[in-house]
Design brief:
With 301 residues, the protein is an all-alpha fold. It has a single domain, classed as MetI-like (MetI-like fold, Orthogonal Bundle). The protein is 67% helix and 2% strand. The chain is globular. The two termini are 30 Å apart.
Length: 301
Amino acid sequence: MSTRTAGSPGVVRRMRPWTPYLFAAPYLALFAVFMLLPIGFGFWTGLHRWDIGLPDRPFVGLENYAELFDPAGVEGARFWTAMRATGIFTVASVPPLIVLPLLTALLMNGRFAGRDVYRAVYFAPYVLGVAVVGFVWRFLLDGNIGLVNHYLGLDVQWTTDVPAAWVALVGVTVWWTLGLNAVIFLAGLQDIPRELHEAAMVDGASAWQRFRSVTLPGLRPVTIFVLNTTILASANMFGQSYLITGGAPADQTKTAIHLIAETGLRQFDLGTASAMSFILAAFLMVTSALVFGALGNRGGS
């Protein structure tokens, strides 16, 4: 690549081969320090019997991984119970976190008085931290003094019984994060050329036909992004389980991230916790690949 120097129209100075790498160096340095090094250290930790309280940390190879895949082992049983809980929450939470935000975005995309206020109201819960959301809903959903049971006239133990606990966790998560996905869908809707809808109306297409033939295809890239990020976020759910149900009853709502944090930070078994993390990461990588493979290449887009 070559560039012309200022004030010398006929002089061409060729860019040196290392110039692009020089501009990328600050980002690459940060990426190496805050991403690659922690990943490498985590994998190295998973190959050791790593207890924070003990000075001796022997190398055990893949023994930590083998214990997790041993159905007769204690750690393996706990881990796969937590993975099952993660799967239940992900399967239950992803569909409403796609459908409801899309419907909300369709409504918010219309022209009506106070539209910006409604947009802010839907997005407002997302600005709250998970600690605030967890503690507030823990009180509201309490089976004895909670306002939910009081005003609905119910006697449901939302935080200690299943499936009520799953309903509570999914409901709180949808209420909390719906606004973010709705805003992303809204941006995608506003990026679809209005001329396509007008042409479909001229051809006599109904509202449903326009939605199916114009809106959905136009939202494909956004939908893939929202679907993938929602799956990853749901599979990494921790705060709601930790603060609202505490993993009850009998660890049935304790997700994989919850168990990893407990194993590493309470039991100080960093080797096992690191192995759990990499197994979970492998599952999420495969899931992301399946999502992009199933939806990313349709229609040549």
